[in-house]
Amino acid sequence: MTSLIQLHCEALAQALLAHKACIATAESCTGGMIAASCTHLSGSSAWFERGFVTYANDAKTEMLGVPSTLIAQHGAVSEEVAKAMALGALAHSKANFSVAVTGVAGPTGGSPEKPVGTVWLAWASRNPAQCISIRQVFSGDRQAVREATTALALAQLAKMVTGS
After folding, report:
1. How many CB atoms lie within 10 A of CB 10?
2. Which CATH number does the domain housing residue 62 bear?
3. DSSP classification of residue 44
4. Which of 29, 78, 124, 156 is most buried (CB neighbours < 10 A)?
């Protein structure tokens, strides 16, 4: 785990413990890297509730309740699907907060509309009920895209938990 990811993870853990809250993750392009980073920390069972690795479109539908029509209309790498994944992670868990990521890590799979490095991230909370998302285009190889996505996912989740 890179030191930046570890730093964000530790900050998230402190925020969640302070708020007596827990998280769920819904991951596609990171393939469980966010969940693995969280559970790398000793004591994470106090704040990490569960993780969904939904790499295939059918998995997004079956595990998170993302409508297949939404995927067909917007594509798996879209704001709509990222938000549906984040909300689905909350709906299928007891977590207070969730993060979802879907993207094109590369080196193949890109298109002019969604080049390699394109990632949609979404964060959701139960109380207050909210869901926010952003699109990023990360540079570098597959590992760099996945690590940058993981770092941003954790950093923004900590900000959501603390309200900053």
Report:
1. 13
2. 3.90.950.20
3. G
4. 124
Closest residue by Cα to residue 13 from 32, 31, 40, 33: 40
Q: Is the pTM of this model over 0.90?
A: yes
Dihedral sign (CA 139, 114, 156, 68): negative
Residue 1 pLDDT: 73
pLDDT tens sequence across 80-91:
999 999 999 999
Q: Using alpha carbons, select from 67, 40, 37, 35 the residue that is nearest to residue 53.
A: 35
The string of DSSP letters for 18-39 reads HTT--EEEEESTTTTHHHHHHH
Query: By residue range, what is the domain housing residue 88?
Result: 3-162
Q: Residues 6 or more apart from 9 whose CB is under 8 A from it? A: 1, 37, 38, 40, 41, 154
Cα–Cα dist 27/14, whole Å: 22
Do residues 138 and 119 make contact, with C-beta atoms less than 8 angstroms apart?
yes
Question: Which residues make Cβ contacts (< 8 Å) with residue 105, sequence separation at least 6?
Answer: 29, 30, 116, 117, 119, 142, 145, 146, 149
- Asked if 120 contacts 66 with a C-beta cutoff of 8 angstroms, the reply is no
Please count the structural domains in the chain.
1
